[in-house]
Write a structure and sequence with these properties.
Length: 249
């Protein structure tokens, strides 16, 4: 039997999740529910669950505050539940965390629990800290995990991103490079609405780092790298530049 608790500030959402677990997942026992930060911390300490279904937005704070207060006591796995369907979802996916979008779908719950059963691992504290930093620095930085290290890279330091199969190279200021084991689409999902634009299937560029856009469709970047835009994409690039520049004034 897997012991679980639910941290959720909406009674209806808690009751729905508890009923679905009881009906369809007999190996999971819900041992309690809390709706605020302090009660959640106390419940986790008292019940020592293996799984915590954790809402990101609580009555008096966030699920992140619950985890911050526990720190060394995080011996459980976390399955985030969230009503956010944009940035937080992308961040969760990027860091490969378990999460359920509200309203929770039974098929989605089934998939997440099957993945948990395969891993049965405790919460990764370092990965959590990186995720939290990523979310708190929305529109400012991206946190990369490579070779056992987490590196925070400010958007303003990225010139452009270049695809290389399932990897992406971030070209940074001072001619530095950072290779990421994510494809360009995954990186674009995290950067795309913050002044970055896909000008070519292999290049995602930082609009603010363009020195020149030549009449024949060549982008000259701040490091003098020349990136050719496809004929099909050229008008989109021009339109995006105009739109972005108009919004900066």
């Amino acid at each position: 039997m897997i012991n679980a608790i639910i941290i959720e500030d909406e009674t209806s959402s808690m009751e729905y999740l508890a009923s679905v677990l009881k009906q369809n997942h007999k190996n999971i026992k819900v041992n309690g529910w809390a709706s605020d930060v302090e009660s959640a911390v106390a419940l986790i300490q008292r019940k020592a669950p293996e799984i915590v279904f954790l809402d990101i937005q609580l009555k008096d704070g966030s699920g992140f505050q619950v985890l911050d207060k526990l720190q060394s006591e995080m011996t459980f796995e976390v399955i985030f539940t969230t009503g956010f369907v944009d940035y937080k979802e992308k961040a969760m996916d990027y860091f490969a965390f378990y999460y359920l979008n509200k309203p929770i779908q039974q098929t989605q719950l089934q998939k997440v629990l099957e993945m948990y059963e395969l891993k049965r691992s405790a919460f990764d504290k370092r990965k959590y800290q990186a995720l939290k930093e990523q979310i708190e620095n929305k529109n400012k930085a991206i946190t990369i995990f490579e070779r056992g290290e987490y590196t925070s890279v400010r958007f303003s330091n990225i010139l452009y991103c270049e695809a290389s199969g399932n990897y992406t190279t971030l070209h940074l200021k001072q001619t530095k490079q950072l290779i990421v084991s994510k494809n360009l689409k995954r990186v674009e999902d995290m950067l795309g609405e913050n002044g970055f634009f896909r000008v070519h299937r292999s290049f995602l560029i930082n609009i603010t780092k363009i020195k020149e856009f030549t009449p024949d469709g060549i982008l000259v970047m701040a490091n003098n790298m020349e990136i050719a835009t496809s004929v099909r994409n050229r008008k989109k690039v021009v339109d995006f530049l105009k739109h972005y520049n108009s919004n900066q004034h």
